[in-house]
Amino acid sequence: MASVPRFLTGTSICDAYVFSHNDYAIALNQFAAELGASVEAVSQLLDTNVDGTPIVLFNQTGKQRTATVKADIAVDGDYVKVFDENNNEVPSQVSVIDGVKTVIFSAKVDAVGVAVYSVIPSDTPYAGENTLSVSENTLENKFYRVTVNENGDISSVYDKELGKELLSAPSRLEISPDNSTNWPSWELCFEDNALEHAFVKDNCKCEIVENGAAEVALRITRTYGSSTFIQTVSLSATEKVVTVDNYVDWFSRNSLLKATFPLTASNPYAEFDVGLGTDKGENTTTYPYFQHCVHTYADLTDTSGDFGVAILNDCKYGMDKPDDNTLRLTLIHTPVEPYDNEKSNQDWQDFGRNEFRYGITSHKGERDGVALIADEFNKPVLPFVTAKHNGNGKKLSLIESDNAEVLIRAVKKEEDGDRIIVRLQEMSGKDTETELRFACPIDSIVETDGYEREIAPIATNDNTTKIALSHFAPKTFAVTPKQEKTSLGRIYTPIELPYSHKITTENGLFDSDFDVAIPAELFVKNITSSGVPFVMGDADKNNAVLCDGQTLKLPCGAKKLYILAAIHEGTGPCEFQKDGKGPHSYQVSNMYQNVGTWDMIAKANTCYLNRDEIAHVYTHTHDKRGDKVYEFAYLFKYSLNVEGVSEITLPKGKEMLLFAATASTSDSSTLDVWPLYPIAEKSYKPTHTITVEDTDIKLTMQEGNYALITAPDNDPNSLFDSWVGDAVKTTNGMVALVCMPEEDATLSIKRRYLGTNLTYKKPATASNSENEDETPDHAVNGIYDQKWCSPIDEKGAYMDVDLGKAYTVNRWLVKHTGKIEGSGWNTKEFALQYKVNETDEWTLADQVTDNKDDITLRDIEPITARYVRLFVTKAGQDDDESHVRIYEFSVFEA
Description:
- By secondary structure, the protein is mainly beta.
- The two termini are 63 Å apart.
C-alpha cells in the first residue's frame, strides 16, 4: 500500500478516525507479520545459497509478471549486480534519495510465487541494454515518452506502440472550493463544479531522482498557499504504466483537490471498477450523480474501439467525468465547516501528511488486461532478505490462472480445517473459463460459498482443473493437496515462567494487581503469532511476570527465544542479560497506547505507526469502575538471539510485563526489505512552548508538530480580528493552526474595539425558549458556546433586552450558529427594533435579509433606546427551519 488511505473518506467525525486509524494499523501490523512468516516458511524449502545477498521475491498476483522491485539493502559503493534464479544479470541500479540508499532492479516472478535473486556490490553499473532515458522534463521507456511542462504538469504521454498521444491537455492538480455545509464530510456540492478552479503550479522545481537501467523518475515540488505537493513521476523498464507517487502536506482550507486527466480517447461512458465488477458510468453533469465510485481503475475506451486509457488508483474512491474525454480523481476533501458542531473538526480533515499514488496506462482495442494491470499496481512484488541454505530449486509457484481476466483474490487456509481456500473473480464482464495450475498434485477440489460451506466437487487432473465463471462472478474453492505437509525441522519449547502477578479480572470483580486489567473472558490459553506458539498462564491465577531481574533457564540447543511482552507504564528500552553478559537492549512497546494514528491536526496527532509485531489484541480493558470500552491492550512479540546461551536475565525496574516465552531450535529469519505497509516513526525532536499574550494559553509540544488554538471570546466590547505571529500556519476565524518552531514562540491576538456592549449581562426575555439551558440570557452572558434557542412560527420569534436606562446606540451585532453548529442554521432574516419606554410601540432600527454570514455586525444611524429587540422571521438558510439559534445579541453605545 503506497499510503495510509483515507479508508473512511468523508464519512465521519475526527474522533472516529482515532479509532479507525488504530484499527487499520493493527490490521496492517498483523497481516504483515503473517505474510513475513509465510514467506520465511516457503524460503526454507528453496535453495538460497547464492553469491551475494539472497533476496526472496514474492508475487502476490495470479499471473507470472516482470516487475520493478525496490529493496532497502545495505550496500557498499554506488552500484550492484543483481542475478535471477538462473544466474542471469538483470537491469539494476542503486538509488540515493535524501541520503537513503535503495536497490532497484527488474525481476520475473511466477504467479502467487517466490523466486530467489542475489544482490552483489559492484564497481560498475549494469552494462546490458538500457531502454530508459530521462532529462529535466522528459522520461522514456519502450512503451511511453512522457513530458512535464514548466508548471510541473504531465503535458504529454505518447504511446509508442499505438502511435498516439494519450493527453489532450496537461494532467493537472486542480483545487476547487469545498462549500459543503449540511453534511460536510458526506457530500460534495454540485454547485462547486461551476466555480472558478485553481491549479497547483507555484514555486515549481523539477529534478531527476532516478536515472538507471531499471527505473527513471522526476520529482516535482510545488506549492499552493500553505500546502506543499511533491510528485514523483516514474517509468520502469518492464511495466506499461506511468506512475505518480504523491506526498502532499495539505493546509488548504475550504478546498477540494483533484487530479484531472484530459484524454484523447472520447466516450460519453467509462467503466469504473467497483470491486465486484465495473459500473458503466456516464458524464457527471447533473445533480446528484456527479461522482462515480471507483476502486482500482477507471477505463475510458474511445468510441472508435481502437484504443483506451485507464487511470489506476491505490486508495482514492471518488471520480467524476465532466465531459466525454476527461476523468477527475478526487484526492483530498476539506469542507468549509464541520457537521453539527465545531467539535467534529471536519473543517480541518486531511490537514497534514497525505500519501497516495495513481497511474496511467493504455491499451489497444477493448480494455482486456486492465484489471490485471490495476491488480499489479496495487500489489507490488515484495522483497525479503533471508539466510543462505540449500534447498529444492530457486523458485516456486503455488497457483496460477491461465486467464488474465480471472484474478486470484485469495489463497489462504480455511477457517475450520486444513484445506486451502482459493477465491477467484472474473473481471472482464464476460462469461469465461480458466485453467488453474497448482504447485503439487491435488486430491480434491470442492466449490464453496463465501462462508466456506461446501456446494459441489470439481473435477481435477493431477495438478490442474478447469473452472467456468460467469461475468464478474467471484467463486471460492477448498483445495486438498495430495502432498503431505513438509516439516521445516523447527522445535518449539514453551518456557515455564515464574508468574508473579494477576493481570486479568472478571466482569464486576476487580481483583487485578494493576490499575488496568485484561478481561478474563478475552484471555486465551494458547496464542500463535506468525507461526510461533505460546502458552499463556491461567485467567484465574497469576498470569504475568513483573520483570525485576528474574532468570529464565533455556532448553539445550535453543537458538531463538520468542517472548510476549509489553510495558505497563511508560516506555522501553528494556535491558536483558544473556548468561550474565550484557546489557542487551530492546525497545518494548506500551501495553495500552494506540499503535497507529495519522495526521489529525484537530487532535494534535502526528502520523505514527508502531511496527513492533502485535501478537494479540484485547478489544477492551477493565478498571475499578468497570469496562473501559474501546480502550485496547496489546501483547507484542519479540525475538532474542540466544544461540549458545543457557539463561536469560529479565529487565529490572518493574516496568515490563512478560506473559509467555517460547524457545526455538531454528535461527532462520526472513526480513522484509521494503515496507509491507507505510513507515511513520515517532518523533523525538525537542519540545518548546507557544504562549499567547494576555491569555492563559500555553502550548508545549515537539518542534514541527501542529495544533489548533482557539482565541478566547471573553471580551464583550470587542470582536476578534486576527492572529499575529510567525508560528501561525493558517487560520479559520478565531482558530489558528500553529506549528511549533525550533524555539519558544509568542503569539498575540488583534481585536477590534466595538464600544461598550450595552446588552452584556442585562435582563433578557423571549417569546419562547426550547429549554431551560437555552434561554435568552445565554445570548447576553458573554460565553461563546451558549445560546438562545426557540421554536419559531409564522409570526416569528423574538428576544428582548432591558438596557436599564436609555442610551444612544449606533452599532449592533448578532452571532449565529456559524462554526459552532454549522452555517446552515445561520439566521436568514431578522431585524433590530427598539423603544425608550416600556409602553411605547416597537420601532424598526435596521433589517437584514438573506443573511449567510456567521456574524452580523452593522452600523446604524444613532438611536435612543432603553429596550431592544431581536426579531427573527426566518431562522435558518432553509426557509422551513423550525428553530432560532442565537449565540450573541449585542448593541453598542455610540
